[in-house]
Design goal:
By secondary structure, the protein is an all-alpha fold. The chain is built from nine helices and no strands. The protein is globular.
Length: 193
Amino acid sequence: QSDVQKLADEINAANRAGFGLNPRPYVFAASVALALLMANPALEEREVQALQQQTDDLLVRAEKAGAHQAGLYYYRGLLYAQQKDKRAADEFLRALAVEPAHLPSRLMAAQELRRQGRGDEAYEVLKAGLPWRYALHDARPLYAETARQAAARREPDVTQEALLKLGYAERKIKRRTRGHRGAAEAEGAVPLP
């Protein structure tokens, strides 16, 4: 039995345990189908269409089960972006309406808005992300891009805020890396350069 089939069986078991009312297994299964789609650019067109349809069906089922979480809209946005559908930006913005600190949605919304020629809106999405704390994700790309765009727009206050946050994030990453390296060295591991 393949790993994908085992995963599908576990997702189905989780769904049965939740009586079909828990949207999380559907969102998770959609994320797996979407990852397969995005990781395999050499798929035949019929396979691509089948995975896209499967992803969409799972997200519809999640929504019917009551999911109104950032992950649902984020994965639908990724599906639309993969299809080059203009609705992608709207889905990422829906995710931000539910969870403003969902960094992947913020970055993808800005990317899709820029791709659609809506650069000012993309910048506003990035700028609106500065006040939020991002514990689960590395926010350095957000801070760097916001600083770059603010500097190009001659907005020194926003540029300074983004650069300060970028510097803080850099120091935080270095402390984490140093902490892990110190623990490894204490255990007798060979230090990394």
